[in-house]
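The step that takes the researchers longest sounds almost clerical: writing a folded protein down as plain text. Below is the pair of lines this work produces for a single protein:

——
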Amino acid sequence: MTVTVSSYAAVPSSETATAAVPGIAPERFKKAFRRHPAGVVVVTADAGLGPVGFTATSLSSLSLTPPLVSFGIGTSTSSWPHIERASTAVVHFLGAEQAQVANTFATSGIDRFAAPTRWSRLPGGEPVLDGVAGWLRLTVQTIVPAGDHRIVVARVEESWLDEGRSPLLFHDGSYHSLRPAPDQ
C-alpha cells in the first residue's frame, strides 16, 4: 500500500492564533467546503438551563443498527456548554422555505427561541421547532474531541417527517433547494 503525504505551508498568524499545523490553511479549507452542498438542520437541547439551538450542516447518518447519527459543534459557540451537558437533543430538518429559521439559529447573541420562532417541548422536555420538515429525537451516546469542534454521536430514539417537503441546502455561501434533474 502506498501512502501519499502532502506538504503544507505555514499558516499565517492572521488566519489562526495557533502555531503552524499540518494541513491546508483555514481559509482554503472553508473555501473547499463551501463548494460541497450540505443539508441544513437545527439542533436543539435543554440541559436544564433553558433551550439552546444552533444551525448545522454536519449531520451524518452513522449506523442503521443501532440507528446512530453524528453532528459537529464548535467549542467556542454559546451552545456548546449546554450540548456538552445534555443527555438528549433534537435534530430538525429544515424545509426549502426555512432559510430564516436557519439564519436565526446561526446568529450569535440573540434569543433564538423568541418570537417569531415557534416551538414547544416533547414529552421528555426537549425543545422542538414547529413547522419543520422533520425531526429526530436523540440520546447522546458519546462526544469525541475533534480539533476546535466536538463530534456528538447520538442514538435516534424517535422521528417525525413531513415527507412532501423539499430540504433546505447550503452551498457556496447561500441557501438552495432541490429541483428534479432535467431527465426526470
